[in-house]
TrEMBL record, chain A:
Residues 5-141 form the Nucleotidyl transferase domain. This is Translation initiation factor eIF2B subunit gamma. Acts as a component of the translation initiation factor 2B (eIF2B) complex, which catalyzes the exchange of GDP for GTP on the eukaryotic initiation factor 2 (eIF2) complex gamma subunit. Its guanine nucleotide exchange factor activity is repressed when bound to eIF2 complex phosphorylated on the alpha subunit, thereby limiting the amount of methionyl-initiator methionine tRNA available to the ribosome and consequently global translation is repressed. Keywords: Cytoplasm, Initiation factor, Protein biosynthesis. It comes from Gossypium anomalum. Belongs to the eIF-2B gamma/epsilon subunits family. The lineage of its organism: Eukaryota, Viridiplantae, Streptophyta, Embryophyta, Tracheophyta. Component of the translation initiation factor 2B (eIF2B) complex which is a heterodecamer of two sets of five different subunits: alpha, beta, gamma, delta and epsilon. Subunits alpha, beta and delta comprise a regulatory subcomplex and subunits epsilon and gamma comprise a catalytic subcomplex. Within the complex, the hexameric regulatory complex resides at the center, with the two heterodimeric catalytic subcomplexes bound on opposite sides. GO terms for molecular function: guanyl-nucleotide exchange factor activity; translation initiation factor activity.
TrEMBL record, chain B:
It comes from the Eukaryota. Belongs to the eIF-2B gamma/epsilon subunits family. CDD domains: eIF-2B_epsilon_N, LbH_eIF2B_epsilon, W2_eIF2B_epsilon. It comes from Gossypium anomalum. Component of the translation initiation factor 2B (eIF2B) complex which is a heterodecamer of two sets of five different subunits: alpha, beta, gamma, delta and epsilon. Subunits alpha, beta and delta comprise a regulatory subcomplex and subunits epsilon and gamma comprise a catalytic subcomplex. Within the complex, the hexameric regulatory complex resides at the center, with the two heterodimeric catalytic subcomplexes bound on opposite sides. This is Translation initiation factor eIF2B subunit epsilon. Keywords: Cytoplasm, Initiation factor, Protein biosynthesis. InterPro entries: ARM-type_fold, eIF-2B_epsilon_N, eIF2B_epsilon, LbH_EIF2B3/5, NTP_transferase_dom, Nucleotide-diphossugar_trans, Trimer_LpxA-like_sf, W2_domain. Pfam families: LbH_EIF2B, NTP_transferase, W2. GO terms for cellular component: cytosol; eukaryotic translation initiation factor 2B complex.
Length: 455, 724
């Protein structure tokens, strides 16, 4: 397949502090004892897409991520690590690595995506329509699904969040409108001529842009070159391409060398139309083609390009790890209802459990962890080499590696990062404890974020 | 309202059998409250106009009867007597199980008024069908009614079901094949609830804006541009009371439907019912008259086609969709093309060609006549050699030999077209003169009082046409009778949209090109929106630039006016007070601020000084001093605060750079002069100096020149402060 894959792994993330830090950049944040990046790479490997560029923000993070990948995926994937400066946005990151891109189409995946959507299917959709961009859309995850007992109470009042407003054609193949970010809170403005061309448009607010795109490389690079104010793929580039699809300014011909000086475009060769129609496998031409025809039905007078949508089936799992809540949800889901995402066995080898200690379903214990007597673990993930005392309760929580938990601790709905020490009788409820933090004996915290001061 | 609602809920709770006890009722509006069919409708109500030789209302009533409606209330207003007389004499007055009752009004000007009147009569007892008398349909109402009732049981607020049909508007003209404007509707695909309705899309400037709450409440919304509103509504009783409560609701769609959609207090809901294989359309304008006539001839409306409605013995369908009545006299050499309809008692001469046309009863058509795509009603005489293309010819018209009707012509009753006369395209010809004060409310499309009085006029007319016609004869050639109505300014361009004639190709091409340009702009606009911050910035800049552009133009002409006024004042020794008054008047008419006046007056004064003869700089200074002294009061009356004074300095600076460079050397002197004359306060001068401090070097030329003066001013000020 002539696809190049770019994984935008990110680096530091403010919304995830104190979970991420210099030592643990976001791509390496463990989700069910695997770095989050593992899920994307695993999925790519499954789809037989083995040529990747992983883009990491920051040199240090790049080294860390590179070390992990070469350790884990050696011989399995051909990965190049590209470190880019921080805060240049996704579009900026792509500009920075533009010279690596050579294939006809580029698949861009966010590194924080935990999903079982087949990338191969996205790529195939993209190819079938000869699209300029294909965006993957998935159903909006319901924060804290109903199965989760303790957090259920507060979630019931929560409406499913809205991430995007998306316009689709009647056959749900083409993307006609996309609104992200602040635009969602405004009234939706739809282009009239697009509606004229397509007849009817379905506007969905229950779909989410999964940040998994296939782009035509020539177009992507040209847009990035020409629109140097564009910061983000999701908020700038994709909406721009969607908006201008019937009045294309981007080069469309399959020939990558087409001279691109503003408006002097090589007109779409006619056989190209034929090919794309055959590829589209459609007896009726798409509205793009109809629109671009002269009334006499012959030559193409207008330049159009196609923006496709791949809608993941509602049963598939697709969540981005971009908040602490999402982190908790993903941990719970990966060990629970979406456990097919992990090819490995869920329970690691031989954790040592004391007497009368119970581990409920949907739990994961990392290798080499030890637990004392009469502990209870429910719907939680416990990392590797943790030492947990007696009479400890861990419910709906994530405990990372090398954590020491004293006797009689109660941990609910919390995240405990690596190398944390919890002394005796600590009670944590809905807290996040940053790496290396020491919680003194007997203290109780509720809804707080605890972290070591950065030196 | 409260009582009404209680009644409604109580009724809903009763079971379906209880509901079924009410006879199925329908309200038929026999007045469309528009003026689109003028001049024809000045003499005959629209519902009685023949549609393939049968009055429109018959199609509607026949359909209602077949659809199981038992009671129809026909609301008539314009020409109500004609409608009532017609219905009384027709078969409809004596049908078993189908009662037709007329409700007459003389002062209703809209559908809203009609429904309010019907509410007062208290004749509607349950769900009813609301249609107008120009609807042609063969859909089954039973399913739609059932859906409506089922919804009502679940949700008492579901008070109306609108029937819609697939119909994609033309990509070029953006109007449907019925000649109606494009329509945007947002419908929830699951519940079929109507969420948005917009038929006047030209105000949207290329964008359709959906309210954010609409999208928040509905995870999925389908926005349709490819549906046509059939104007068949299944309503609950509340609809009538709603019209009564909201006495300003006039138009069924524009006020009532949109009103309900935006009103979230009452929570009333409108739903849609889409029909797929059956036919439903409303004759809204001449184009839909043409389209629907063709549909009837091509039997899309079966069983409501002429041969069935009139009984198959009277009219026979032949091959190629030709309909011929039993006693047509057709010359052997006449050619009847496809889809032609010839009514009873019509005579057609030699070598006449007729295709895609409807010819009424008892017409006489001569030889060598060509008729294409035209609608010729009853008792029309067409003499030899006439040519008709895409025209409507009403009863009793006479076309003298050789007359030609170009596409889109409407000839109203009893018009006579003279020999060899060519009636230009899109003309509307009537024996009645065009009403001078046309509806001011054209846009709202209510017939004004003329629709009520039209009847009277036509009565008068029948008696007294003859005398005053002689003078108009020339308008339609020798021997012609009738007035050609003039088209309003600007409306001419739009005439083709609703005409019977197909849209000419060159028009389409032109539209295409226009549209392309529009879109060019739109996408550019769209690009502007791209980045959020960018959008606001560049948008803002864009509009500011435009404004500046405009206001600059305005300002230039304002300045000229002020200058002329000033010069007149100087030469004619006008008193200062009067000059002030005149400048003020100018200021108001140009919508300028007094800041601009000050600048403009000062500019005129200095210009006068420069233009007065002078040999040296000192003479120029003296000139300026004289003028300033004479007219200081005028200038002063426009300088109320410091900002305005600064404006004068800036103006002066600009002059020194551009129009009156001679002053450049005198800048500090003039400044001093203005200060001495107390036209400028020292604060203003100092503020100007401060502002200029940060400017470019090139901008500071004059500041430097007047440095001494400013220095002196500053010191004076300090001294004053010390004194205090």
């Amino acid at each position: 397949m002539d696809f190049q894959v770019v994984v935008l792994a990110g680096g530091n993330s403010k919304s995830l502090t104190p979970l991420v830090s210099k030592d643990v950049p976001k791509p390496l944040l463990p989700v069910a004892n695997h770095p989050v990046l593992y899920y994307v790479l695993h999925q790519l490997e499954e789809s037989n897409l083995k040529d990747l560029i992983v883009v990491v923000e920051g040199e240090d993070a790049g080294l860390l991520v590179g070390a992990w990948i070469s350790g884990t995926f050696v011989d399995r994937l051909h990965v190049e690590i590209a470190a880019v400066p921080e805060d240049i946005g996704t579009a900026g990151a792509l500009r920075a690595i533009s010279h690596y891109l050579t294939a006809k189409d580029i698949l861009i995946v966010s590194g924080d995506l935990v999903s079982d959507v087949s990338l191969g299917a996205v790529a195939a959709t993209h190819r079938r329509h000869d699209a300029v961009v294909t965006a993957t859309l998935c159903c909006v995850p319901i924060c804290g699904s109903s199965e989760s007992g303790s957090s259920g109470g507060k979630d019931k009042t929560k409406k499913p969040g809205r991430y995007n407003i998306i316009g689709l054609d009647p056959r749900k193949q083409f993307l006609l409108h996309i609104a992200t970010g602040a635009e969602i809170e405004k009234d939706t403005r739809l282009q009239e001529h697009l509606l004229h061309a397509v007849g009817q448009m379905e506007i969905r607010s229950d779909l989410m842009d999964a940040h998994m795109y296939a782009f035509k490389r020539s177009v992507l690079q040209e847009v990035l070159d020409r629109k140097d104010t564009f910061q983000s793929l999701k908020q700038d580039v994709v909406p721009y391409l969607v908006r201008s699809q019937l009045k294309s300014e981007a080069v469309l011909s399959g020939i990558p060398q087409a001279e691109e000086d503003g408006n002097e475009k090589v007109s779409f060769p006619n056989n190209q139309v034929m090919v794309s129609q055959i590829l589209a496998n459609a007896s009726t031409p798409s509205f793009h083609e109809l629109y671009s025809m002269d009334p006499d039905g012959s030559a193409q007078t207008r330049k159009t390009h196609k923006c496709c949508a791949y809608i993941a089936s509602s049963s598939s799992y697709c969540v981005r790890l971009n908040s602490i809540q999402a982190f908790m949800d993903i941990n719970r889901d990966v060990t629970g209802e979406a456990d097919h995402l992990l090819s490995d066995t869920v329970i690691g080898p031989s954790p040592k459990l004391g007497t009368k200690t119970t581990v409920g379903p949907h739990c994961m214990l990392g290798e080499g962890s030890e637990m004392g007597d009469k502990c209870q673990v429910k719907r939680s993930v416990i990392g590797r080499h943790c030492r947990i005392g007696s009479h400890v309760k861990v419910v709906n929580s994530v405990v990372m590696n090398h954590v020491t938990i004293g006797d009689g601790c109660i941990i609910q709905g919390s995240v405990v990062c690596s190398n944390v020490q919890l002394q005796e009788r600590v009670v944590l409820k809905d807290c996040q404890v940053g790496a290396g933090f020491v919680v003194t004996a007997g203290s109780e915290y509720k809804g707080e974020s605890l972290a070591r001061k950065e030196k | 309202m409260g009582a009404q609602k209680k009644g409604a809920t109580a009724r809903v709770s009763e079971d379906a059998e209880e509901l079924a006890r009410h006879p199925l009722q329908a309200i038929l509006l026999a007045d469309s409250f528009t003026t689109k069919f003028r001049p024809i409708t000045l003499e005959r109500p629209k519902v009685l106009l023949p549609l393939v030789n049968i009055p429109m209302i018959n199609y509607t009533l026949a359909w209602l009867e077949s659809a199981g409606v038992e009671e129809v209330f026909v609301f008539c207003c314009a020409h109500s007597k004609q409608v009532i007389d017609y219905l009384e004499s027709s078969e409809w007055s004596s049908q078993p199980n189908f009662s037709v009752t007329t409700i007459e009004s003389h002062n209703s000007i809209s559908a809203g008024d009609a429904l309010r009147l019907i509410y007062e009569r208290n004749v509607i007892h349950g769900d009813f069908v609301l249609i107008s008398g120009d609807t042609v349909s063969n859909m089954s109402l039973i399913q739609a009614f059932q859906e409506h009732k089922d919804r009502r049981k679940k949700d008492a607020n579901a008070i109306m079901t609108m029937v819609v049909k697939q119909s994609k508007p033309s990509p070029i003209t953006q109007q449907s094949r019925l000649g109606t404007d494009e329509l945007f509707m947002a419908i929830n695909p699951v519940t079929k609830q109507l969420l948005y309705y917009e038929d006047k899309a030209e105000y949207s400037k290329g964008f359709i804006s959906l309210d954010k709450t609409l999208i928040a409440d509905n995870p999925s919304v389908i926005l349709h541009n490819d549906k046509q509103d059939c104007y068949i509504d299944i309503c609950s009783q509340e609809v009538l009371s709603l019209f009564t409560d909201n006495f300003d609701y006039q138009h069924l769609r524009r006020h009532f439907v949109k009103g309900l959609l935006v009103d979230d207090i009452m929570g009333y809901k409108i739903f849609t019912h889409e029909i797929h294989s059956s036919y439903a359309a409303r004759i809204d304008n001449f184009r839909s008259y043409d389209t629907i006539s063709k549909d009837i001839i091509q039997r899309w409306t079966y069983p409501f086609v002429p041969d069935v409605l009139c009984g198959s013995s009277a009219i026979k369908v032949e091959r190629q969709g030709t309909y011929r009545a039993s006693d047509v006299t057709l010359s052997r050499s006449a050619q009847l093309g496809s889809f032609a309809f010839i009514g009873q008692g019509t005579k057609i001469g030699n070598d006449t060609k007729i295709s895609h046309s409807v010819i009424g009863e008892r017409c006489t058509i001569g030889s060598n006549v060509t008729i294409e795509g035209s609608y010729i009603w009853n008792n029309v005489t067409i003499e030899d050699g006439c040519q008709l293309r895409n025209a409507i010819v009403c009863d009793g018209v006479i076309l003298k030999s050789g007359a030609v009707l170009q596409p889109g012509v409407i000839l109203s009753f009893k018009v006579v077209v003279g020999q060899q006369f060519v009636v230009p395209a899109y003309s509307k010809v009537s024996l009645l003169q065009q009403p001078t004060q046309q509806d001011s409310d054209e846009e709202l499309e209510y017939a004004d009082s003329t629709s009520g009085t039209g009847e009277l006029r036509s009565d008068k007319l029948n008696g007294a046409i003859a005398p005053d016609l002689s003078e108009t004869a020339s308008e339609l050639g020798t021997g012609g009778v009738g007035y050609i109505w003039t088209v309003f300014e600007g409306a001419y361009d739009e005439e083709w949209r609703h005409s019977v004639a197909p849209i000419p190709t060159n028009k389409l091409v032109k539209l295409m090109l226009d549209k392309d340009e529009d879109e060019e702009l739109l996408t550019q606009d769209g690009n502007v929106i791209s980045a959020l911050e960018l959008k606001t910035d560049s948008d803002g800049n864009g509009s500011e630039d435009d404004n500046n552009e405009d206001s600059r133009d305005d300002y230039v002409s304002f300045e000229k006016e002020v200058e002329a006024t000033f010069l007149r004042a100087v030469h004619e020794n006008v008193k200062v007070d009067l000059a002030v008054l005149e400048v003020n008047a100018l200021r108001l008419s140009y919508n300028m601020a007094s800041v601009d006046c000050g600048g403009a007056i000062f500019y005129s004064m200095m210009k006068l000084a420069v233009e007065s003869p002078h040999n040296s700089a000192s003479e120029l200074h003296r000139n300026a001093a004289d003028i300033v002294t004479t007219w200081q009061k005028l200038l002063k009356s426009f300088l109320h605060d410091i900002d305005e004074e600064i404006e004068v300095i800036l103006k002066f600076e600009e002059m020194c750079l551009e129009s009156a460079k001679e002053f450049a050397a005198l800048f500090p002197q003039i400044l001093h002069l203005l200060y001495d004359k107390e036209i400028l306060q020292e604060d203003a001068i100092l503020r100007w100096a401060d502002e200029k401090e940060g400017a470019d070097e090139s901008d500071k030329v004059f500041l430097k020149r007047s440095e001494k003066f400013i220095q002196w001013l500053r010191e004076a000020e300090e001294e004053e402060e010390e004194d205090e």
